[in-house]
Amino acid sequence: MSNDTKKITTQKCEVTFLEEGIVENYIKPGIVVEAVDLEELKKISSELAGNKPYVIIVTSGELASFSKEARELSASKSFITNAVAKAIVVDSIAKKIIGNFYLRVNKPYLPTKLFSDRAEALTWLRSIINKQ
Fold first, then answer.
1. Which residue(s) pair with 23 in the sheet?
2. Cα(51)–Cα(59) distance, rounded to whole angstroms?
3. pLDDT (tens digit per residue) in 5-49
4. 110: closest CA among 70, 55, 68?
5. β strands within the chain, DSSP E
6. Distances (CA, A) of 13 to 64, 93, 97, 131
7. Reported pTM
8. Phi, psi dihedrals of residue 96, rounded to the nearest 5°
9. Which domains are seen in the chain, by residue range?
């Protein structure tokens, strides 16, 4: 796979190469992401980023969620390869509550922040990837 491929769609997600060093992981509506799905997401994201350091913006459709195992895996140090930061865009009160729960309980190893504004999330991610 080359960087010419800008978007890859799986059964549960869409992974898009937005710009140099920035990959979007969009979780489709109503989907529950399992640990095995995260492995696939990580592989695709890394390939789209050219196996170089990258940052992730996570967005999701309505009622999308992550299993307990997926949350634990995504927060772990052992899961991290080339990713250097993650911004989670929350567009509802429910997602904000769940996002804050993830940050407090799972304590992700990767620098992770919640944003209600996509543009602010991208600005933060650009500031991080530009330091690499």
1. 17, 56
2. 22
3. 599 999 999 999 999 999 999 999 999 999 999 999 999 999 999
4. 55
5. 7-9, 13-19, 22-27, 32-33, 54-60, 65-66, 83-89, 112-115
6. 10, 22, 22, 28
7. 0.89
8. -65, -40
9. 7-116 (3.30.750)
